[in-house]
Write a structure and sequence with these properties.
Strand content: 5-15%
Number of strands: 10
Radius of gyration: 21 Å
Helix content: 40-55%
Structural class: alpha/beta
Strand order of the largest sheet: 1-2-3-4-5-6-9-10
CATH architecture of the largest domain: Alpha-Beta Barrel
Number of helices: 16
Largest sheet: 8 strands, parallel, barrel
Order of helices and strands: HEHEHEHHEHEHEEEHEHEHHHHHHH
Length: about 425
């Protein structure tokens, strides 16, 4: 199937709203190769386009620190995705998307309080690597700034940095004679609040004026906060239907789609609201990492049964190794609440119940660790000796929440619907 630019996909979705056949695209955080396989199998079987949203911590150039997922830089990420798509037999449309690109978006850069120009230069280098690897969508996100008190970046500053970075990316794309790419922009960090329609409209109007003045394209998506918020392994936000619908209609009036972040762990009723609320796309990431961690731990439970029955004499150490390494990454802090965010690694390790909770949250951060990979292989071998395909179980386990979203967001068959409505 000929791949449409992602902006055309959104145009198709906006047209489908008039027919009642629209859908909400799913942005998938590429937490592992198993997740890619699971999503490609579902994309193949249910005829839907796939968007892989990689943060700079997950996928980035080696010179900028690389990524924690499979040690991927942009080129290896693109190659591995294509290889898995080919292996699965997926011949539909998929899109490589930069999630939260921009200055200070790597944890290390922000924690080091890099000067603005240095942070901007690193952001530009990261975008160039994205462009050269064939990314289809770039999120321009200047909403993190270690020097701004209270974390709310002034709108003027967000606009200036956003337009400057879009202009830079367009110049780099054209210099390489590459096809058009889409952009995703927003005004604030996604923190569970609501974006006011007044602020959203002001941002869009001022953004359009600046982009038009420089001959730059409008973005494909504009992020708006609909009340979603992920903490620990729960959806703790309060979804606001009317706010989402208002933002979506406003975005559509400018020919762009409303993008929602933090859509993990939603129940069916809230997901089903997305279609009448006209949300164009929603991002889900940590939930899939947690589901994979849970799959490994269930396999560890099975292995322990085999040990108790005298069928396995040398069990893997996956549970303990995964727990220890996941806690020591300290990446779980961003998902915790209250005083737990300040606990030391030693305090966490001394509390078995809390340790297991944090493992559930952050096991995926260390899937690429050599010792963890060796223990997974050991686990698989022990199970395979008793006719259990461990990796197949893991992939199928990840598919469960993916399929829930595909069904509720009306994504089955949406590729064919988009192609048809665009041809009319």
């Amino acid at each position: 199937m000929e791949k449409l630019p992602i902006k055309r996909v959104v145009e198709g979705l906006l047209k489908l709203k008039k027919t009642g056949e629209s859908a909400t695209l799913l942005g998938i955080g590429p937490m592992s190769s198993n997740l890619l396989r699971a999503s490609f199998e579902l994309g193949r079987d249910f005829d839907l386009p796939l968007m892989y949203i990689a943060s700079r911590n997950q996928v980035d150039a080696d010179e900028l620190g690389g990524g924690y997922v499979n040690a991927w830089d942009q080129q290896r990420f693109a190659r591995d995705i294509q290889a898995i798509a080919d292996e699965v037999g997926f011949d539909g449309m998929y899109y490589l998307c930069r999630d939260h690109g921009g200055p200070w978006q790597r944890d290390g850069e922000r924690n080091a309080h890099l000067p603005e120009e240095e942070a901007m230069e690193l952001a530009r280098k990261s975008y160039v690597a994205d462009i050269e690897a064939g990314f289809d969508l770039l999120m321009i996100d200047p909403t993190k700034d270690p020097f701004v008190i209270g974390k709310v970046i002034p709108l003027d500053l967000v606009l200036t940095r956003t337009v400057d970075l879009i202009e830079f990316c367009e110049q780099e794309r054209k210099a390489r004679n590459l096809p058009e790419i889409g952009y995703e922009v927003g005004t604030e960090e996604t923190n569970g609040g609501l974006t006011s329609t007044e602020k959203y409209q002001e941002f869009i109007e001022r953004l359009k004026a600046e982009l038009d003045a420089r001959g730059l394209p409008m973005p494909t998506f504009i992020v708006g906060q609909t009340g979603t918020l992920t903490r620990k392994t729960e959806q703790v936000g309060q979804y606001h239907f009317q706010n989402a619908l208002s933002l979506a209609k406003m975005a559509e009036s400018y020919g762009v789609g409303l993008k929602e972040h933090n859509a993990d762990y939603m129940d069916d009723a809230t997901l089903l609201e997305h279609i009448p609320a006209e949300v164009t796309a929603s991002n889900v990431a940590p939930q899939y990492g947690t589901e994979e961690t849970r799959a490994y731990l269930k396999l560890c439970d099975v292995e322990q049964i085999l040990v108790a029955e005298g069928l396995v004499s040398a069990p893997s150490k996956l549970r303990d190794v995964l727990l220890d390494k996941a806690i020591k990454t300290e990446r779980w802090r961003k998902w915790m609440v209250g005083e737990q965010t300040k606990l030391s690694v030693e305090e966490i390790l001394a509390d078995r119940e809390l340790s297991l909770e944090i493992l559930d949250i952050s096991g995926h951060y260390v899937f690429n660790d050599d010792e963890v990979k060796a223990e997974i292989a050991h686990l698989y071998d022990n199970l395979a000796a008793h006719h259990i395909d461990g990796q197949r179980f893991v992939v199928d386990h990840i598919k469960r929440p993916l399929q829930q979203y595909i069904e509720c967001l009306n994504l089955k068959g949406v590729t064919s619907r988009i192609v048809k409505v665009l041809a009319e």
